[in-house]
Amino acid sequence: MKIKLVLTSLFILSCSMAAIGQNVTMVKLGASFPMGNFGESNMDNEKWGLIDNSKKGGAGTGAVIGLQWQWKAGKMDGLNFICSADVLFNFLNEDVNDFFDDYRDRLEDNYDDYSLTSPKYLNIPVMAGLNYTLPISDKLTVMGEAGIGANFRKITNMHAHAELGENESDNIAEFNSALTMAYRIGAGIKFSERYSLHADYYVLGAAKVKGTATMESNYSSESNTFKAGTINPTMLTIRLGIAL
């Protein structure tokens, strides 16, 4: 399955490179809003997919930037092939951030120095698909598009560091990356020669959270693998498109 995903990603990237200079190359940047389980958590019961067997991702609002290549598909007016590569970065939601803040506040007084770094989500989907544009006036064009491809997911490390006198300790959760099938659907409005506004719905593929937990101190070091919940990054993005 992973081999097929890698080959799919390479194929889509090849399409993207071939598309450069064909017709339209666009930068799209804006905000990403987690949807469904991906944006939910219940830290009162520690229901969060990074620490227990939950589907709740605890993601918060983030940022997105991407490139899209577009070129005409055959003789049908308005129909185009598209290839896209995006980077979506999401912080944690308020519920999970409050949990980390409370946990940090409880422990800070027990140590000379204590720090706690929370994880973030990084998703990089690469897709190919179709776009259809329909002019409705001299200055306004509406569009719809859909794409399918592969998503690379990375969760940054969760790290707690404590110092008391000459003693130091580090607890690090390092999350494995994941490669999944993904798709998106979207719509937009082009309101000038270069500028457009886009709304896209991403489903980036469910994958089990796995990783390695490491506990280090002045005297010992121990590492163990772990499994947690199954996270499916699902997001709505609102972006400004700028044709290059």
Cα-atom Rg, whole angstroms? 21 Å
- Overall SS class: mainly beta
Low-confidence stretches: none
Helix proportion of residues, in percent? 10-25%
Overall number of strands = 13
Per DSSP, what share of the residues sits in E-state strands of 2 or more residues?
over 45%
Largest sheet descriptor:
8 strands, antiparallel, barrel
Termini separation: 36 Å
- The neighbouring-strand order within the major sheet is 1-2-3-5-6-9-10-13
Shape: elongated
SS field, number of helical segments: 2
- The ordered string of helix (H) and strand (E) elements is HEEEHEEEEEEEEEE
Average pLDDT, all residues: 89
Identify the notable features of this structure and list them briefly.
mainly beta, 59% strand, single chain, 8-stranded antiparallel barrel, 13 strands, 5-stranded antiparallel beta sheet, 244 residues, 2 helices
Give an overview of the whole structure.
With 244 residues, this protein is mainly beta. It contains 2 helices and 13 strands. Strand 5 and strand 6 form a beta hairpin.
Topology:
Elements: H1 2-19, E1 24-34, E2 59-72, E3 79-92, H2 94-108, E4 113-117, E5 121-135, E6 141-155, E7 158-164, E8 167-175, E9 178-190, E10 195-203, E11 207-217, E12 221-231, E13 234-243
Antiparallel strand pairs: 1-2, 1-13, 2-3, 3-5, 4-7, 5-6, 6-9, 7-8, 8-11, 9-10, 10-13, 11-12
